[in-house]
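Exercise 7. Predict the joint structure of the components listed below.
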Amino acid sequence: MTRFRPISPQRLPELLRRMPKAELHIHIEGSLEPELIFAMARRNGLNLPYADVDSLRRAYAFGNLQSFLDIYYAGAGVLQTEQDFYDMAKAYFVRAAADNVVHVELFFDPQTHTARGVGMATVINGLHRACVDAFVELGLTAALIMCFLRHLSEQEAFETLEQALPFQDKIIGIGLDSGEVGNPPEKFAKVFARCKALGFHLVAHAGEEGPPAYIWTALDVLHVERIDHGVQAVHDAALLQRLAQGRIALTVCPLSNLKLCVYPDLASHRLPTLLDAGVVVTLNSDDPAYFGGYLNDNFVQTFSALNLDAEAAYVLARNSFEASFLETGTRRDLMARLDQTFETFD
Ligand code: ADE
Ligand code: ZN
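Solution:
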């Protein structure tokens, strides 16, 4: 832990914005803003069932995860060309860099696209080119995590993996997302074992709406290195202990939890319980175009609602580097940059 001078509550939002941080839980299709959806629909000759950007935004009122996913998969339907994937990711990287995000590990959902006849090469080459340019133009490092859709079968996940293997050098990890309840991690035991043997990093959404049991099986059956969301772990003391002792990170997304009605308001979020239990928590935006905020919005609104202080800010930013899949040396350099921000902030 670095030592830093006390920071007044008035100055805390500026510190939250200025501190370097990594984002480890962002679905790139969830960064597609309505303006870009309409621009892509126009250039691809597609009709949308909404008159304009404002009426699309008005539809963003969700009662649970599934009601969001229905609109999110429909929005992703405008993505057709490699340039579309590039433009979507580039727009997100520009926005993330403005929040002092220095490293991103981003999810993509290839099955949403291959099911519409879009080639795996189109998806991965477009996203990868945006990652390369993000480093050259913004100094931001970025890596791709391919997610399997858990409402589909394990056989379909195997087919997706086969299609992606020619691009293995462009993917650092494998994840699991989409409708959680009724689709437990163990449904994907064999394909995750194959991914592990291939040398991929492994993560999975668990304990967003689903029970703590899904977090246990993500760890013990899938052997994931991080849990995405994981907030339902607060209901299982033994699990909290396991996460804390194993330094297994939870990539928590407060504005997502709010918009998908996991909590009635941000003040009810259980982030403090997770931090008090010593769990390695990180803050993330999940699907920022749909949930009303990018990473700094998540930090500023959550800190205000929960009265968190500068020490929590430091811990969360440091956790984002610790939990990343960066090489040890790079991770250490970024932690030193974080220390310097706190030591020189006034
Ligand atoms: N896909 C995009 N956002 C998601 C979320 N919050 N949970 C599960 N799958 C998702
Ligand atoms: Zn997610």
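Discussion. The longest helix spans residues 120-138.
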